[in-house]
Each structure stands twice: as structure tokens, then as C-alpha cells.
Design brief:
Layout: E1 4-9, E2 13-21, E3 31-36, H1 38-48, E4 53-60, H2 63-74, E5 82-85, E6 92-97, E7 104-107, H3 121-125, E8 127-133, H4 134-137, H5 142-155, E9 159-163, H6 174-185, E10 190-194, H7 195-202, H8 208-217, E11 222-226, E12 232-236, E13 240-244, H9 258-271, H10 276-291, H11 303-308
Parallel strand pairs: 1-4, 1-8, 2-6, 4-5, 8-9, 9-10, 10-11
Antiparallel strand pairs: 2-3, 6-7, 11-12, 12-13
Helix pairs in contact: 1-9, 9-10
Length: 309
């Protein structure tokens, strides 16, 4: 029996999220500090759901790096595979608080310093899912480490996964991004992407059909497209198309990390052998909880019980 449910490889950073709602970064006066980075959020959320999650990432030898390690430990996420850079400070991102897609300014430093020594074969062999992001693939040495380890993970029988959280601010060269994604998608990962990600990646509005065909042709069998208020669509090569409406939410307090919550729910459901329809429902429930809370998922509720009701 494998002891690691999910290995998340990629960016760990600090999100400084604006205090005022729907205000531009230009006009935001106060920021609150949160543990951030998409794979980091997935690892923390997975741990909250009772999964054994391992984060492979890098931060700086500084106070923010110490904060990251403390927060990961508080959330029962192993820090054994976190690198601490001697050269670079911890990466930070300033984010506007928003009910829609937030604005952000990245200051990338240590997050890309991920090396193969942080993820040995015996650790890979003990895991069920290998998850990463477009952000993590945007810069070396992390890019090459992830591509190499993903191939090994595939050979060892792991299910791969990726959040195509593309942004031209993180990765200005779209054609290079598509080439790198092609290498990763050749391993047939579960794919999560949003309409915003697609608009940024293709620099144009593309139809659902175009998006699904594009990523299926690169090698992914199961693709999950989140459409904000318009719900979720999943295209599976063997099972066809699925669609669910968005869940009704009383008040959106913060959209940062909602996609990560959604994808954690989806991977959780897949690990528990749920079908695609049930996986979408569990994913949407977890995203809805996140949208109604600023920062991380709330402490005082039984999230696992809530999403399985």
C-alpha cells in the first residue's frame, strides 16, 4: 500500500492579498499575508481532507521562508522535500482581493530552484498522484526537474495531474509554454484549466470544442474546464462530455485559491474512485467553501464531511 496520496511539485510563495474588495493594486492600501502557490494550496487542502500530501518546492533562507515551513507544519504537510535557497529570497506575489479574477504582481525568486535530488525514485514509487502547474514549468531548473520526474512517475504507474494556470506575466513566451506543455501532457495527466487560463494561453477567446481538442491532441484523456459563474465542463476521451452548473453562493469573499480548492476536491474524488460527475460535485463544493472565505479554507468546520454530504 502506498503511503503518499499526492506529491505536489512547484511554487511555494507568499500571497500578500489586498484588504479592500475589488480595488486595483494601485489603490490597495493594506495587504494580509497568506501561504500561497497553487501546488502548495493543493497540498494543504489535501491534508485538510485527510490525505497524505507531500510538497516538493523551494523558498529562501529568510523570515518568509521560516513562515512557510511553520505554516506547512501547522497543516500537517511534510517539509522534508522543501529546498532552502542560499542565493534567492522567498518568492512573493501581491494580489488584489476580488470576486472575479484577481490582479497580481509576481516577484519570483527561490520558487523555481527545484532539483531532482528533492524527489528521489523511492519517494515517487510510494505515491499515487504526481501534480504540478504551468507556473512551475515556466522556469528552470524547476521545469526540467518536473519534466524528468514526471516521466519517471509515469513509468512507476502514478496518475499525473496539472493545473494549466498560465499567465503571460509569469511566462511571456506562449509558444515555448505550449511546447513544454506538450512534453508534460504526453504522460496523460488529469488536466485542470479555466477559461481565463485559456484566454491568456491562446491570446484569444476559443470555443470549448477547440480547447478540449487542443489538449486531447497533446495526450490528455481527461480535461476539466472551469467556467466561473457558468459552471464546469469535463471532456473525457472514453466517456464523453459532462457539464455541471455553478453552485449558488451567497457572498464571494475572495476568489484567490478557489481553483486550487476545486482541483483538490477533484483529485480527492478520483483517489476515492468516484465517477466524473461525482468528482465535479465534490470539487465544486470545496471551491464554494473557499470562495466564501479569505485566505485558506476555514479551520472550524469538518470540510471532509461537508463535501461528502
Amino acid at each position: 500500500m502506498k503511503s503518499i496520496d499526492i506529491i505536489c511539485v512547484g511554487e511555494v510563495l507568499i500571497d500578500f492579498i489586498g484588504h479592500e474588495m475589488n480595488t486595483s493594486i494601485n489603490r490597495t492600501k493594506d495587504y494580509h499575508r497568506f501561504l500561497g502557490g497553487s501546488p502548495t494550496n493543493v497540498a494543504v487542502n489535501a491534508s485538510r481532507l485527510g490525505l497524505n500530501a507531500l510538497l516538493v518546492a523551494s523558498c529562501g533562507q529568510d523570515g518568509l521562508g521560516d513562515y512557510i515551513l511553520r505554516k506547512l507544519k501547522d497543516n500537517n504537510v511534510s517539509v522534508d522535500n522543501i529546498g532552502k535557497s542560499d542565493q534567492s529570497p522567498t518568492s512573493v506575489i501581491f494580489v488584489s482581493k476580488s470576486t472575479e479574477t484577481p490582479d497580481f504582481i509576481p516577484y519570483r525568486e527561490a520558487d523555481c530552484e527545484i532539483y531532482e535530488s528533492q524527489l528521489p525514485d523511492d519517494v515517487l514509487a510510494d505515491a499515487r498522484i504526481f501534480h504540478t502547474t504551468c507556473f512551475a514549468l515556466s522556469k528552470n531548473p524547476a521545469r526540467q526537474t518536473i519534466l524528468n520526474r514526471a516521466q519517471k512517475a509515469k513509468e512507476l504507474g502514478l496518475q499525473l495531474s496539472i493545473d494549466i494556470n498560465f499567465s503571460e506575466r509569469i511566462w511571456p513566451n506562449r509558444e515555448e509554454a505550449k511546447q513544454v506543455l506538450q512534453q508534460y501532457l504526453a504522460n496523460d495527466p488529469l488536466v485542470k484549466l479555466s477559461e481565463d487560463d485559456c484566454y491568456r494561453l491562446f491570446a484569444a477567446v476559443k470555443s470549448e470544442e477547440y480547447i478540449f481538442d487542443f489538449f486531447h491532441e497533446l495526450g490528455a484523456k481527461t480535461i476539466c474546464l472551469t467556467k466561473g459563474k457558468n459552471g464546469v465542463a469535463v471532456s473525457d476521451v472514453d466517456q464523453g462530455l459532462f457539464f455541471q452548473k455553478a453552485m449558488a453562493i451567497n457572498e464571494v469573499k475572495d476568489s484567490t485559491g478557489a481553483g486550487d480548492a476545486f482541483w483538490t476536491g477533484f483529485l480527492y474524488a478520483q483517489l476515492h474512485q468516484k465517477d466524473l460527475d461525482k468528482s465535479m460535485t465534490i470539487a465544486q463544493k470545496l471551491a464554494a467553501i473557499k470562495l466564501q472565505n479569505v485566505g485558506r479554507l476555514p479551520d472550524n468546520i469538518n470540510i471532509k464531511k461537508l463535501i461528502e454530504e
